Amino acid sequence: MCALPTAAEGPLEGPLEGPLSEHQHESDSPALTWLDEDLLRGGVRQRRFDVLRAGRRVPGLLWTPAEGEGPRPLVLLGHGGSGSKRQDYVVGMARRLVHEHCISAAAIDGPVHGDRRAGPPAPPPLVLAEFAQLWANDGDAMTDTMVADWLATLDALQSLPDVGNGAVGWWGLSMGTITGLPLVAADARFGAAVLGLMGLTGPTRERIARDAPRVRCPVLFFVQWDDMMFPHDAAIRLWEAFGSSEKRLVANPGGHGDLPPDVLETSARFLAAHLVGDPTGAER
Amino acid sequence: MCALPTAAEGPLEGPLEGPLSEHQHESDSPALTWLDEDLLRGGVRQRRFDVLRAGRRVPGLLWTPAEGEGPRPLVLLGHGGSGSKRQDYVVGMARRLVHEHCISAAAIDGPVHGDRRAGPPAPPPLVLAEFAQLWANDGDAMTDTMVADWLATLDALQSLPDVGNGAVGWWGLSMGTITGLPLVAADARFGAAVLGLMGLTGPTRERIARDAPRVRCPVLFFVQWDDMMFPHDAAIRLWEAFGSSEKRLVANPGGHGDLPPDVLETSARFLAAHLVGDPTGAER
Question: What residues of chain A lie within 8 A of the CB of B245, using their CB?
């Protein structure tokens, strides 16, 4: 159960643009609008929001305990290529963080993914191909946009009374590391990060190589030993490059998508140990 | 709390030799004698035993829950070079297994270590030097002797009513892997093993290379990235050689002795998940 002290509303940054549609209503944060999705299941509340930034809508989901005020820790979840903020493992990770550790969680759609796309849902291979093209042709700008979208989202969410400006963590593998690593490097609020299934390779490898030493918080880094997309030697070089004094590499056999089933629990325990000091999550 | 079903006494193998001294008394196992050490602290019972094998005494410690009958899982703990069965981390690991997971634990002294030595305690560097010499000059025979000593100990302990023939695990890093890996490879009773701080290197590297593919149980393998004694590339080659389909490499920065403080908890959770199916230790 969640029983954390209340706190004053945090500061807000970021522009407010775009009119509200009939399906939206205002929130406590001027940059954030709620859409008509507010679900409660097993003590976990799931809400659909848009954050308005630079004239665009950044579509997201927020998971919080059903009751109580912040500040409480917040973990940002970056999904992998061809997925979305509603991906099973994103929702599973969010619900686990809220339910087991009283940590709020949020996800936004990645570039060309999810509700950022117009029209009907596209087949995952097409989305992945479009992402690969964007990464190859305009990877640094794509990275900058995602970092800015995430920071605006973080600011807006921290201004909500039931989130507040508590400790912040990151969880994102594969594409969730491609854009998440530069985010964690860019903001000192991150107190822990789970990264992996990526290496010092790909179109933005120079950007990644510059940013990795700027990551200073504790890092848990997953490697799949038989990953054909991001070979383990490139992954190890990325892990070696992190500036964090506390960084752990966890390697398992298998390909890019063959992560063992305990990854979410291991990740949640790691994040809780660093963000909450939760004795059930602390690794002694 | 421990509440496991009782079971019949298990089989016993191994010779019985040597008279009992005035400080010893017989046990339920003819190969095992108890010495005058029977401590109870925080629900954990610690007893000093000798196992008689091939005319020699193998000195050991057994940790069990204070009450109840077996069978319960048993984890064998192999200490590192210059240590002993009474090393802080051995006792800490044993107490954690009993207290948190209701798993019994046992340790015996390594070659030329602990109570295997005559006379007053020797300085650790001297013990380490003698071990290194033995490893270099007679490493395969040393390995065979330790494997046989451990198997006789395992048989004797499993015949005790409050241990019983439940699931068996191994925990041993560095020297605890040099002799523990061949042990785990030699006996199908092992259901999980924690190994590490060692690589495909050293005087018995050919023996280790032969035995690693015979290890089939789930393995958790620790690597210290800046280990000067067992470089990480040799450690990775050893991990790659294990025959286990489930094997996890966990790498942390730092030298041979700089393991992070959560190693014991991580190890205990891993062992419990595989030996008990304990929901508090299970990694989902």
Answer: 253
Binary contact (B261, A249; C-beta < 8 A): no
Model confidence, pTM? 0.86
N-terminal to C-terminal alpha carbon distance within chain B = 22
Q: A283 vs B264: CB contact, 8 Å cut-off?
A: no
> Could you give the CA distance from residue A32 to residue A235 in angstroms, rounded to a whole number?
36
pLDDT (tens, 9 = 90+) of chain B, 284 residues, equals 454 333 322 222 222 233 444 456 666 677 999 999 999 999 999 999 999 999 999 999 999 999 889 899 999 999 999 999 999 999 999 999 999 999 999 999 999 999 999 988 899 999 999 999 999 999 999 999 999 999 999 999 999 999 999 999 999 999 999 999 999 999 999 999 999 999 999 999 999 999 999 999 999 999 999 999 999 999 999 999 999 999 999 999 999 999 999 999 999 999 999 999 644 444 43
Chain A residues with CB-CB distance to B265 below 8 A: 283-284
Task: Tell me if A248 and B249 make a contact (CB, 8 A cut-off).
Answer: no
- B-chain CB neighbours of A225 within 8 Å are 240, 249
Question: Could you give the CA distance from residue A22 to residue A37 in angstroms, rounded to a whole number?
Answer: 13
CB of A131 closer than 8 Å to CB of A38 = no
Q: Which of B246, B260, B283 is closest, CB to CB, to A265? A: B283
| Mutation for testing the B interface, residue in A95, A242, A248 having most B CBs under 10 Å | A248
Residue of A nearest to B250 (CA): A250
Domains by residue range for chain A, with CATH: 32-275 (3.40.50.1820)
Contact between A77 and A184 (Cβ < 8 Å): no
Nearest to A252 among B248, B260, B266 (CB): B248
Q: Give the torsion sign (CA, B138, B140, B145, B146).
A: positive
Interface confidence: ipTM more than 0.90: no
3-state DSSP of chain B: CCCCCCCCCCCCCCCCCCCCCCCCEECCCCCEEEEEEEEEECCEEEEEEEEEECCEEEEEEEEEECCCCCCCCEEEEECCCCCCCCCHHHHHHHHHHHHHHCCEEEEECCCCCHHHCCCCCCCHHHHHHHHHHHHHHHHHHHHHHHHHHHHHHHHHHHCCCCCCCCCEEEEECCHHHHCHHHHHHHCCCEEEEEEECCCCCCCCHHHHHHHHHHCCCCEEEEEECCCCCCCHHHHHHHHHHCCCCCEEEEEECCCCCCCCCCHHHHHHHHHHHHHCCCCCCCCC
